[in-house]
Amino acid sequence: MPKSKSNKKKQVTLGKWLYKFEVNKTSLEKVTTTSKDKDGNEVSVTKEEEVTKPLECYILRPRRSLIDQAELFYGVQLAVGVKAGLLTKSLINKRYSEDGGVFSKKDQEVYANLQLTLLRKEKELQKLELADVDQEEKKERDKRASEVLFGMTEIRQQMQDFEAFREAIFDQTADTRAKNKIVLWWILNLSYIKDELEGGETVPLFKGETYEEKLNCYDNYEELSIEHVNQAMGQFAYYISFWHNGQANTKEDFDRVKVFLDLDLNDYSGKKAEDRASEAERKVIEAEDSLKDIEKAEKAEENVLEKKVEEGSPEEVEVVKETEETEEAKETEETKETEEAKETPEKLESSEDNEVK
Q1: pTM (predicted TM-score)
Q2: What is the 3-state secondary structure (H, E, C) of 135-162?
Q3: SS3 (DSSP) at 32
Q4: CA dist list (Å): 41 to 35, 36, 38
């Protein structure tokens, strides 16, 4: 006997979500209260009250077929920009490289220092997070981690000034236009919510089968200006932009992104779809530059030190060198103690053999 087909929609398994977050949803619901009158009869009163509940939001993990569609979409948008007369980043970069770069030599050194400092603070934060401490030491560790995180935020804000200047040069290029379009495309295709109106199933936030239909749904949401939907769209734009640039792939990565989201989420309210994606892209630049290769960062530090020697600031250079020598000496001493600890049992055994002989 053939099995009857179920009309119920299939739920997407948790393994296919990149990340889950929640926003507060306030709605009017009918609430019924029962009381007794003077004669002892039960009286029911129904009235509408504001009720706040969490709205579950999910970022879908894209399959290979969806990634292929995104690559095709990006190529088409890039070609449209070039056909319209926009230059590409490669052409502008070539022009500036012939003139010595976008930044002056002094600005390059300042930026290298910021980048190096941020890299060191990130390494320190990772060590603090991995440190195995007891309950008493945990308070000190958390306090230090908060200080480091605050320092990283300040450095990123300084770096943002440099990046804003650099990105302003490339704002009107075919690459930037196509990049903003593809981030918006991902937002429209990866944003899901658990909708009570759909029986509690997880469904796309933006309805439609094509890009144009989903974009039209996005525009309708903006016109309606529903508070919890606006919050959800802002967070989707932020998280997906970081994911698109390779800065968030695991739950831990997204949790770290959330720290910065809490600081500047208000910047997204009242902005159009493409503007939200563009703003999120600028935020991502800070994270991209902070994760450069360690050797490149150390090379930048050496260049800064050489520059200080040339400018005649030996005292400051000496302090830096002494600090580095002290750190190297500590590492050497620890290595030596470890090797001696390994050799001690062998020496004792050899000494006992000689005494027996």
Answers
A1: 0.56
A2: HHHHHHHHHHHHHHHHHHHHHHHHHHHH
A3: strand
A4: 8, 5, 7
